[in-house]
Design brief:
There is one protein chain. The chain is of the alpha/beta class. The protein folds into two domains: about 1-125 and about 325-370, Rossmann fold (3-Layer(aba) Sandwich), CATH 3.40.50; about 130-325, Dihydrodipicolinate Reductase, domain 2, CATH 3.30.360.10. It contains 14 helices and 18 strands. The chain has helices spanning about 10-20, 35-45, 60-65, 80-90, 100-110, 110-115, 130-145, 175-180, 225-230, 245-255, 275-285, 325-345, 355-360, 360-370; strands at about 1-5, 25-30, 50-55, 70-75, 95, 120-125, 145-160, 185-190, 190-195, 200-205, 210-215, 235-240, 265, 270, 290-305, 305-315, 350, 375-380. The strands form four sheets. It has a seven-stranded parallel sheet, sandwiched between helices. The chain has a seven-stranded mixed sheet with strand order 10-11-12-7-15-16-18. A two-stranded antiparallel sheet has the order 8-9. α3 packs across α4 (about 80-90). The model has no long low-confidence stretch (mean pLDDT about 95).
Length: about 375
């Protein structure tokens, strides 16, 4: 099969590295608006990879390159995901993306009938959260007969945290701030609700050296899970894991208006506080260095007449051998696996479908474990 990776940044690099190792992948086209960047990555990835200059916002250029492949991993800004879905439908090419904005996903889902008519599958939100955790949640839900609650906790952290926020930019700052300002969709008492971000603090513990951590509401992590499982699940929520104290500092910035996109007047000049904050975070947070991704998905309910809890846990670390960060691995590997599953027929449904609706959980978990992502599962 031939696979296109749109974007030669960190996530595009992770997807390309993974695809290059798969025997069934004959060729990888690495597309980027910066040809030198794409060429440098192609050289790193090896003989299966070729580079092309493609503007991710230009329909004509996208049509040309999409037509050359069986499947696409779109690893660029969520702002072009709708356009890429339209091009996938036009060219009859399977595609998955990394999500980043639930309103864009809603627009993509509105094109499901067109994708089905084109005989293709498009999977938005196919990263770590939403994405991997959505499939894990489905696996747990399908194991039980009756579901009381689904709790999803995810965090990308430095192994060696440094002040002032004990955090580094492991992914794009725009997506990070979105998580801290947009509504958090959950299921409470069997009904879909919108909750505020940066509240709902709880303490949780992971194996050393991480120990006690905090988790709090952030947006986007549940994606379409509430709509998919409304009527089947009584409680469902998502929280982000951070080192203790981080959430309150971000809450203070939110309440002071630093995450507000509306421009304000400062000495006769219009300034967006959010853009200032984004730039300051980009300029002043420490390099990510060696990172870790922590995941815990807990599904509680009943198996027959017995109360059961199925729990999935991942502690994934920076890969010293490849130099891939854990966030690259846990975000881009699920997308790479999905792209292959669409192309080789293991994903059979057609349309625009979110991960929990179309990715076969057992096969998906097996693929990720084969890539060194250790998904531990226990039932109590």
């Amino acid at each position: 099969m031939k696979v296109l990776v749109m974007g030669s940044g960190q996530m595009g690099k992770g997807a390309a590295y993974d695809l290059a190792k798969q025997e069934s992948v004959e060729q990888i086209i690495l597309a980027d608006i910066d040809l030198k960047c794409a060429e440098a990555l192609a050289k790193e990835v090896g003989p299966k990879a070729i580079a092309e200059r493609v503007d991710a916002k230009k329909r004509a250029e996208l049509v040309k390159v999409f037509s050359k492949v069986d499947s696409v991993v779109s690893a660029v800004s969520y702002t072009v995901n709708k356009l890429h879905t339209e091009v996938a439908i036009e060219t009859g090419t399977h595609m998955c993306d990394l999500g980043g904005n639930m309103f864009v996903v809603e627009e993509q889902l509105g094109m499901s009938d067109q994708a089905k008519d084109a005989g293709i599958t498009v999977v938005p939100d196919c990263g770590v959260a939403p994405g991997m955790v959505s499939v894990l949640a489905r696996h747990g839900i399908e194991y039980l007969d009756r579901i009381d609650s689904v709790k999803i906790r995810v965090g990308g952290l430095q192994q060696d945290p440094r002040p002032p926020l004990n955090y580094s930019l492991i992914f794009a700052v725009e997506g990070l701030i979105n998580e801290y300002v947009e509504p958090c969709v959950a299921i409470r008492n069997g009904e879909i609700v919108n909750e505020d971000p940066l509240i709902g603090f709880e303490e949780l513990t992971f194996p050393e050296p991480f120990g006690k951590l905090e988790a709090f509401n952030t947006s986007g992590g549940t994606s379409t899970l509430p709509q998919t499982y409304l009527g089947k699940v009584n409680e469902l929520d998502y929280k982000t894991i951070r080192y203790p104290g981080h959430g309150h500092k971000m809450w203070c910035l939110l309440k002071l208006g630093f995450m507000n996109s509306n421009e304000i007047d400062i000495d006769g000049k219009k300034v967006s506080p959010r853009r200032v904050l984004e730039k300051l975070l980009e300029n002043n947070l420490p390099p990510s260095g060696k990172d870790a991704t922590l995941i815990r998905v807990m599904v509680e309910g009943w198996k027959g007449t017995e109360s059961r809890k199925i729990e999935y846990e991942v502690v994934d670390l920076y890969d010293d051998t490849t130099g891939l960060t854990s966030m690259m691995r846990t975000t881009s590997f699920p997308a790479a696996v999905t792209a292959m599953m669409m192309a080789d027929g293991r994903i059979t449904e057609r349309g625009v479908l979110t991960p929990e609706r179309c990715i076969p959980p057992e096969l998906f978990i097996e693929e990720l474990r084969s890539r060194g992502i250790d998904i531990k599962q226990k039932i109590v």
